[in-house]
Write a structure and sequence with these properties.
- The longest helix has 22 residues.
- A hairpin with a 2-residue loop joins strand 3 and strand 4.
- Helix 1 packs antiparallel against helix 2.
- With 303 residues, the chain is of the alpha+beta class.
- The chain has 9 helices and 7 strands; from the N terminus they run E-E-E-E-E-E-E-H-H-H-H-H-H-H-H-H.
- The protein is 40% helix and 21% strand.
- The protein has 2 domains: 163 residues, Sandwich (Jelly Rolls), CATH 2.60.120; 108 residues, Homeodomain-like (Arc Repressor Mutant, subunit A, Orthogonal Bundle), CATH 1.10.10.60.
- The relative contact order is 0.16.
- The radius of gyration is 21 Å and the shape is globular.
């Protein structure tokens, strides 16, 4: 009978923001906030993620060895060593370990990425030069040892630098970006910059140079939602970011994202997030962000 090889235990090195004071720092210049990251060794199992969890985190993965199969909204993606992967938030996805994997990972918040063309599905670039791996190492080093505000600012910027490298690597064909789509992209940026102000569909249609009917139909074809509902969802998403990154009272956050009526804010937040703002804040600030994904399952060592 052949000898049984000893099982290698799953190891996790989880790093977070260096101090509680860091939570009070504003988002980085690009609207980015590092939440948690780490280095997972011999990983084979993950907790499943559901869109109903409303997980707000963007995820970066950089496998060093092994193989992972990502199930994302009905599609499958191979996660292999030598590439950097970006997974968007608030979507159904499941990780399936095919071979024990060593990988760097990072969770971060960045509201402005939501409407960037090409980031509605997982994307990746090859890390042939090793620059991505070097940046991941730097990020984790800063997460442990950063003490100055300059180092904390660098910590916030690294996730978006890695994301920018992915966007540059996508090299989308220029002809695939139609002029009308770019005009609508400007409208989406206008909405994002003015969420705290009153936004009316007629005014947006005027900015687009279209009738309200034509603008609404085009907007819905592109985003999947009518303008009013899209604006409400963006305001709720912005409120989520503020709930996690500031200690401001909930009613003050409601006003900051454009809700003149606190009751309407509470009602819509429960509709889209399936929980109250207070519970959402408590859940994600009190919970270890690594528990949902990077903490080993009880049977992980059995594989």
């Amino acid at each position: 009978m052949a000898a049984v090889s000893p099982v290698r235990p799953v190891q996790f090195h989880v790093f977070r923001c260096p101090s509680r004071q860091e939570r009070q720092l504003p988002f980085g210049r690009t609207g980015t906030k590092f939440v948690t990251g780490g280095l997972a060794l011999h990983r084979l199992t993950w907790r499943n993620h559901r869109a109903a969890d409303h997980d707000p985190y963007w995820r970066l993965y950089l496998p060093v060895s092994g193989e992972i199969l990502l199930h994302f909204s009905g599609e499958q993606y191979s996660i292999l060593p030598g590439s950097l992967y970006l997974i968007p938030p608030e979507q159904d996805f499941r990780m399936e370990g095919l071979r024990p994997c060593n990988h760097y990972w990072c969770h971060f918040l960045c509201p402005s990425l939501t409407f960037v063309h090409g980031l509605q599905r997982p994307v990746s670039i090859a890390d042939g030069s090793g620059v991505c791996r070097s940046l991941m190492r730097r990020l984790l080093k800063l997460a442990i040892h950063a003490k100055s505000f300059q180092e904390l600012a660098e910590l916030q910027e690294i996730p978006i630098r890695l994301t920018a490298m992915i966007l540059d690597g996508l090299a989308l064909p220029r002809q695939s970006i139609q002029h009308r789509g770019m005009e609508l992209a400007e409208i989406l940026q206008y909405i994002e910059k003015n969420l705290s102000n009153r936004l009316r569909s007629r005014e947006l249609a005027a900015l687009a140079g279209q009738t309200l009917t034509a603008f609404t139909a085009r907007f819905r074809r592109t985003t999947g939602l009518p303008p009013k509902q899209y604006i409400s969802m963006r305001r709720i998403n912005r409120a989520k970011q503020l709930l996690l990154s500031t200690g401001e009272p909930v009613k003050q956050i409601a006003a900051a994202v454009g809700f003149q009526s606190p009751d309407l804010f509470f009602r819509l937040f429960r509709k889209y997030a399936l929980q109250t703002p207070e519970l959402y804040r408590k859940r994600y600030l009190m919970r270890d962000p690594a528990e949902s994904e990077e903490a080993p399952s009880p049977d992980a060592a059995d594989h």
